[in-house]
Amino acid sequence: MSLPNRLTGLLLTVLVVFQPTLFVGCSTAPVDKRILQYLNTEGFGKRYVGIAEEENYVTIGDTVQFVDSYNEEVRGTERVDIDGTIQIPEAGAVFVAGLTRTELESYLTQKLSPYFIQTDVKVQIQAGANRVYYVMGQTAREGPVPFQGDVTLFEAVLSARPRQHQANLGRVRLIRADPRDPLIITVNIADMWENGDSTGNIKLREFDIVYIPPTLLQQAADFVSGILVPFSSIFRQILVVILQLEDPDLLFRSGRGNRNFGFF
To answer: CA–CA separation, 77 vs 64, rounded Å?
Structure first.
């Protein structure tokens, strides 16, 4: 048998033997229905989402101020409870979470119409502390930032105080997370002050994620640190065992008044 025929036969043998495992990753296992009940299907995982700068909407922790133009007794200021309701005279607990200002005015007018001859409810929504955007990466201020509206990507990065020589401002990512249609935009922030190009100065929305990645040098430093730290920890323990120290920190302190080796 020639060499090409032998190779072909060997390949067929391998395919036959390992066929069950070669395509196991291609099959789609049925998803547990209980898991599907908890998977997010819209927005950022919040139950009440929207675009507040286009038309404000009600969410948990907001304060709703309402007044009826025809009935003076129908007025008040209520905080939206954890179940999404506020208390309205005559109507009692009314579910309002998720409604925009226009929808809420129409809904409250409808709820009160059985109790009054004429009614016309006007509302004001005061946002609570739940509207935020997030900053992550090489910055001194990581975490959620209160969203006050009219915030650009440049302002968000600048106020987060990116770490000098560690933050890669040429590859800043704006992440608008969504389970079905996520959006990730990479922006060169440094180009704004170097060339004045504000094309990438995107206006932020609530729940946006601003990620400031590390530079290549910082990535290399993190990689080396990740390798050396376990070894330094092992070295420390070995020295403690060899020298039989009751207080291991004595070995690693530094200072004039301490008799120690001052390794770290």
So the answer is: 6
Q: How many CB atoms within 10 Å of residue 99? A: 22
Amino acid at 14: V
Q: Got the DSSP string for 175-195? A: EE--SSS-EEEEE-THHHHHH
Rounded distance, CA 55 to CA 127, Å?
Answer: 12
Q: Is 260's pLDDT higher than 50?
A: no
Q: What is the pLDDT of residues 10-59, one digit of tens each?
A: 445 544 444 554 444 454 556 677 776 677 777 788 888 888 888 889 98
Backbone angles phi, psi at 231, to 5 degrees: -70, -40
Percent of the chain with pLDDT over 70: 73
Mean pLDDT, range 94-108, rounded to an integer: 92
Does an H or E element contain 41, and which? none
CB 97 within 8 Å of CB 84 = yes
Instruction: Report the distance separating Cα 94 and Cα 97, nearest Å.
Output: 9
The model's pTM is: 0.68
d(CA 124, CA 121): 10
CA atoms within 13 A on the CB side of 253: 10
Query: With contact defined as beta carbons under 8 Å apart, do 175 and 208 qualify?
Result: yes
